[in-house]
Design brief:
Biased composition (Basic and acidic residues): 328-340
Structural class: alpha+beta
Order of helices and strands: HHEHEEEEEEEEEEEEEEEEEEH
Strand content: 35-45%
CATH class of the largest domain: Mainly Beta
Radius of gyration: 24 Å
Helix content: 10-25%
Number of helices: 4
Distance between the termini: 14 Å
Region (Disordered): 328-354
Length: 354
């Protein structure tokens, strides 16, 4: 029985770890990025959280020393990180110049392969990772000794069905081209370039996403102060109703302050969705606040449904009129659910051998 309980406990912790380490599907595969600092959603039954600050965290289950070691170490790391995360509101996490995945969420990392004699490399780069119809795809191929090349675009989900093929004009080891938008570009696409280098064919493959827009971010609707939060209401034109998540980065001049995120169920037509910036990430005074790097997602509502993306018709929203003097300068208070999740993790970290 104890073995079964231990296995179940390990599975729960594995789920927590997966929620933290799971890659963001809106970014390029294999890209090295820092992990989002979002709140971990641990779906478990917990004791009364009212006494969480009065009593030490309890042990989750009884485990053997062998089962304890790896589980306890992982739980300690997760609990420590989660405790630090709860210093800030989950919808308003601090942002620094080192958070490249949030500052450049649509960045494409060039793909590089060696040529046949290993004397050099061939690189393939796109201007971004995710495209929205009718954007063209800008492609650049570089490498010494390239005499000619062609690109083949195919759909990954349909057994690499070829959608488009084009020869590339190569000059001095470089080829630049724009692939025109096509309605057939919808989903995960593969761009395969076959280059002739000194008579040897070299194949290099890049992955990207191409989507039909589900909504458009039009602009700022209004700002307001509610307690410790600066409310930033945005206007969207929704073409496909559903649950939407909107993310944006808050700056003070050129300095990143916070990564803001919100989620709401929206109907078709003109809709409103509000981001919140908690006082813990806001300066006392500023006349150069602005929002940038907008991402609009229509989230999957049923298994197998793809995440769709909207587009932003604006690149920057000035918030210079925000009056920060009305903010209540109070620390963020974690919700009962968040504190219960922390208690569970701390209980796992404090297990003792039988």
């Amino acid at each position: 029985m104890k073995k079964i309980v231990a296995v179940v406990t390990s599975a729960l912790l594995a789920l927590v770890i997966w929620r933290i380490l799971a890659p963001n599907n809106s970014t390029q595969p294999m890209q090295s990025v820092s992990e989002p600092k979002a709140v971990i959603d641990v779906q478990i039954q917990q004791p009364d959280v009212a006494s969480i600050n009065k009593e030490p965290a309890t042990s989750a289950v009884e485990m053997s020393p062998f089962q304890l070691t790896s589980t306890q170490k992982a739980a300690k790391v997760i609990a420590s990180n989660y405790r630090e995360t709860l210093r800030y509101a989950p919808y308003s996490q601090p942002l620094s110049i080192h958070d490249i995945d949030r500052l450049e969420p649509n960045r494409f990392v060039p793909v590089t392969v060696p040529n046949s004699d290993l004397s050099g490399t061939i690189a393939l780069a796109l201007n971004k990772y995710r495209f929205t119809y009718p954007e063209p795809i800008e492609l650049q191929l570089t490498g010494e000794g390239i005499s000619r090349a062609k690109v083949i675009v195919s759909l990954v989900d349909e057994k690499n069905k070829i959608l488009f093929e084009k020869g590339l004009s190569v000059s001095q080891g470089q080829a630049n081209t724009k692939l025109p938008a096509k309605e057939a570009f919808n989903g995960d696409i593969q761009l395969k370039v076959i280059a002739d280098v000194g008579g040897d064919p070299i194949t290099i493959v890049a992955q990207a996403k191409y989507v039909q827009p589900s909504a458009k971010l039009v602009g700022l609707k209004y700002m307001d102060v509610q307690g410790s939060d600066l409310i930033i209401a945005l206007e969207l034109e929704v073409e496909d109703a559903g649950i939407y998540r909107v993310r944006a980065n808050l700056f003070d001049g050129g300095t990143p302050l916070a990564h803001l995120v919100t989620k709401s169920k929206l109907a078709n037509g003109k809709q409103e969705i509000a981001l919140k910036a908690h006082q813990s990430v806001l300066p006392d005074l500023s006349n150069d606040l602005k929002l940038m790097t907008f991402i609009v997602e229509r989230m999957s509502s049923v298994p197998g449904e793809r995440t769709r993306y909207g587009e932003s018709l604006i690149t920057e929203i000035s918030l210079h009129a925000a009056d920060l003097s009305d903010l209540k300068r109070e620390p963020y208070k974690p919700s009962d659910k968040e504190r219960a999740s922390l208690q569970f993790l701390e209980g796992m970290a404090q297990q003792t051998p039988l």
